[in-house]
């Protein structure tokens, strides 16, 4: 007979493969597998609780039967010489208690083995669930990051295309402004140059006139 863990593992594997073939959302597939494993673990815990309760009741009955066997044997010895019929009935009851005790000891042993197996299966299921959750969280984070990077690159490409156009227009506007400023600066400088040139010419003319006046005297 397969253990609960083996049956659950086969069932989970079959369900998981079926979901993978039908669904592309891997996170949802893993989440469904986790839910199935958690459901199996919960059912196993309920079963374990029942088995433990049965084992406790059997152990209590075993103690009662062991005491009854001892009591009936003691009574058989007590009445063996004086009341043989009562002594024989005591022995019959001792034997019935002994038979039931033997049967229950075997049942209790099997229940305890089932209890140990269930506890191991639950532990394996819990480890399996924890592993699935860790892998799901890790892969979901990687998936989110990958999608974010793709979305970021697409947005960046679109934004960069628009920014390039803005930069070109900005640069053209600055170039136009610089040309206007340079032109205004040149006109302003030319006025100074022209004025300085006129002053120089005026001085030179004065010198010529003075020289001519001196020669005529």
Automatic annotation (TrEMBL):
It comes from Rubellicoccus peritrichatus. Belongs to the PspA/Vipp/IM30 family. The keyword Coiled coil applies. Pfam families: PspA_IM30 (PF04012). This is PspA/IM30 family protein. It comes from the Bacteria. The keyword Coiled coil applies. Residues 16-43 form a coiled coil. InterPro entries: PspA_VIPP1. Keywords: Coiled coil.
